[in-house]
Every structure is written in structure tokens, then in C-alpha cells.
């Protein structure tokens, strides 16, 4: 605590704008995916309103893409909901980790604030803590609100363009999501035990797909990968961790 | 009556909100998280997303296999957006070439 940022002397308005300044790189990085989501959502049969509603309420790109991917197939509603939940489950770790630094927030501030706890919001908040700052509600919402508004807006733009797209096969649009998901999977490749998890999930998913059938390949494949990590990864044996260091911080 | 898509969206949103507030409400009450639980939780996103990619690749033909390989190689060196762009270009070209 020796080199704190001078938050305490800043007004709520100044803090809000300090947070808002950090929104630009986040919007630039997320924008294309918001537009892509909007376009694919409409392509898969959702209305523009539904696509925008999904962005506003779920506000988590990867899980929204999963939802859209599964809408296109004949899959029971609860399986789609469960898949969205599974993809978003990582937020539990962010929430537990950042929550320890939000004890000065009111209950209402927490109820509102946690809705906006997306990956870059978490990363920015952790970064601010690392630099000796504290997470004021005004600063947090200064970042969260512009990003959320932009995400909803760009979804709407993408959905309008999605209405104009035709012939998704020629343009490879039907294969865009697998490529996108592969990219997300590869984004985790620095995590310990990544390759065994991906390998066993892929094999289990294909076997389940052939035997039990869709949509069970999602839950069966994912369970296989998660169990493998829980029982056999070096991290599970307590050797080292490059995940969120809840354990060390809390003990 | 609201369409089932609206209900799926709202249920997905409610559960997503639970993941965002739930860690704070539940996980923070424990002094420590068992390493197995943390390892399992860490593996969740890669495991789930893999199960969505795998059948698409398995069901594809040579054009899809070429495109996914090109995308994977691109993914080793590039961030998500250029990787998706290259992968998309690859699938368009491969389908034009192979049909």
C-alpha cells in the first residue's frame, strides 16, 4: 500500500471518466465479435430484438455464440441454457477473486456491479489493484457502462447486416463458429494440462456424438475433460497454479 | 406469448448472472478452494468449447479439415480476430477449390 493511486482525492465523476478511458481497447477488441454475433444470430433464425436482448442480458460473447450455434440445431431448450451456463462458469472464479476487494460497496452496488463482470472488466480491475488502486464503484461503472452500451449497439448493427447475408455456405459462415471456438480454445493453451483436457474432451465428444447422440456430446465431452483435470493435472495435486490464485489469497 | 428463444435468453441470462455474483456469495465463504476443484473449474471453458468444435470437424470434409488446420496454425501466432479472418478465408477458398 505504499504507492497507492490517488483515488481517495478523486470525485466520483473523475473516477467514472478514469474508468471510461479504459473502455476503448476493450471495445476495439470486442466490437467485431459483437457484430459477428448479431449477424450469426439473425442468420440462425433469431430476430434483431432477440439478438440485442441476448447481448444486453447475457453480455458474454462466447456463451452467446454457443447459444446461437445450438439454436440452429434441434436441441432441447434446457440443454442450450445449461451450455450457456457451462461456458460462463468461469465467472465464478472472477467473482470470488474480485469480490474480496469490493467489501466497501453497498449491497445495491454489488447487485448491479456483478452483472458487468466480463473477462476484460475483471482483467482491468485486477490490473488496477496490482497498480495499488482500489475498485471504486464509480471507476468500475465508468468502464462497464460504455463497454456494455457498445456491445449492445454493435450487436444491433451486426444483426441488421446479418439480415442482408445470403448463401452462408459459399461464404463459410456455417463454419465460422467452429473456427471461432477453436480460437477461444487455443487462447487457453498456456494453462497447465491444456492439451490432455482438450484431447480427451474432443475424443469423448465425438464418441458421445456417435453413440448417445447430440446434444449429450457437450456435457459428456466436457465432463470427461473436467474430471481429467481434477484428478490428474499437476495443479490438482497442488504443485503450481497459473489460474486465479484464490487459494493462496484466501488462506 | 413469448417465444421459446426469449425464455432461453432470459434463463441463460439469469444463470450467467448467478455465475457472476455466485463466486462472491458462495466461494468467498470458504477459506481455501481444494486444488482439485480449482483445476476442474480452470478446465471448464476449454473442455466445453472443445466439445462444440470436435463434431463440426468430425462431420466436415476435406475443405473443413484444411480450413481448421490453417486456422489452428494461425492461432499459434495471431490473436483471435486475425485467426478467425484467416480461417474464414481458408474455408471459402478450400470450398471453391474442392467443392
Automatic annotation (TrEMBL), chain B:
Residue ranges of the TM segments: 6-27, 39-59, 65-94
Family annotation (InterPro entries): Brnchd-chn_aa_trnsp_AzlD (IPR008407)
Top-level taxon: Bacteria
Keywords for the protein's UniProt record, in alphabetical order: Membrane, Transmembrane, Transmembrane helix
Pfam families hit by this protein: AzlD (PF05437)
UniProt source species: Cohaesibacter gelatinilyticus
The name this protein goes by in its record: Uncharacterized membrane protein
Amino acid at each position: 500500500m505504499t504507492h497507492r493511486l490517488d483515488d481517495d482525492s478523486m470525485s466520483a465523476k473523475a473516477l467514472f471518466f478514469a474508468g471510461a478511458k479504459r473502455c476503448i481497447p476493450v471495445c476495439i477488441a470486442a466490437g467485431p465479435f459483437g457484430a459477428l454475433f448479431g449477424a450469426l444470430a439473425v442468420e440462425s433464425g433469431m430476430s434483431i430484438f432477440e439478438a440485442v436482448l441476448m447481448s444486453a442480458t447475457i453480455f458474454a460473447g462466447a456463451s452467446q455464440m454457443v447459444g446461437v450455434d445450438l439454436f440452429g440445431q434441434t436441441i432441447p431448450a434446457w440443454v442450450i441454457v445449461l451450455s450457456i451456463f457451462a461456458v460462463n462458469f468461469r465467472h465464478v472464479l472472477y467473482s470470488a477473486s474480485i469480490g474480496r476487494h469490493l467489501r466497501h460497496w453497498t449491497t445495491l452496488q454489488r447487485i448491479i456491479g456483478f452483472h458487468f463482470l466480463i473477462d476484460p472488466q475483471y482483467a482491468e480491475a485486477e490490473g488496477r489493484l496490482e497498480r495499488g488502486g482500489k475498485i471504486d464503484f464509480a471507476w468500475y461503472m465508468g468502464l462497464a457502462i460504455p463497454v456494455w452500451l457498445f456491445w449492445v449497439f454493435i450487436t444491433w448493427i451486426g444483426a441488421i447486416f446479418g439480415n442482408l447475408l445470403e448463401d452462408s455456405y459459399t461464404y463459410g459462415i456455417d463454419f465460422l463458429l467452429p473456427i471461432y471456438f477453436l480460437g477461444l480454445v487455443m487462447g487457453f493453451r498456456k494453462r497447465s494440462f491444456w492439451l490432455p483436457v482438450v484431447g480427451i474432451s474432443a475424443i469423448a465428444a465425438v464418441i458421445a456424438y456417435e453413440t448417445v447422440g447430440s446434444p449429450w456430446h457437450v456435457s459428456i465431452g466436457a465432463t470427461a475433460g473436467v474430471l481429467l483435470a481434477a484428478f490428474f493435472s499437476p495443479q490438482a495435486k497442488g504443485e503450481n497454479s497459473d489460474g486465479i490464485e484464490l487459494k493462496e489469497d484466501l488462506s | 406469448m413469448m417465444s421459446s428463444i426469449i425464455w432461453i435468453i432470459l434463463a441463460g441470462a439469469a444463470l450467467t448472472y448467478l455465475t457472476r455474483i455466485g463466486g462472491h456469495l458462495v466461494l468467498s465463504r470458504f477459506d481455501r478452494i481444494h486444488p482439485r476443484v480449482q483445476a476442474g473449474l480452470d478446465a471448464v471453458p476449454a473442455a466445453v468449447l472443445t466439445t462444440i468444435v470436435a463434431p463440426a470437424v468430425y462431420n466436415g470434409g476435406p475443405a473443413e479439415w484444411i480450413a481448421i488446420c490453417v486456422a489452428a496454425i494461425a492461432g499459434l501466432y495471431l490473436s483471435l480476430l486475425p485467426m478467425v479472418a484467416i480461417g474464414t478465408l481458408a474455408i471459402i477458398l478450400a470450398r471453391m477449390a474442392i467443392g
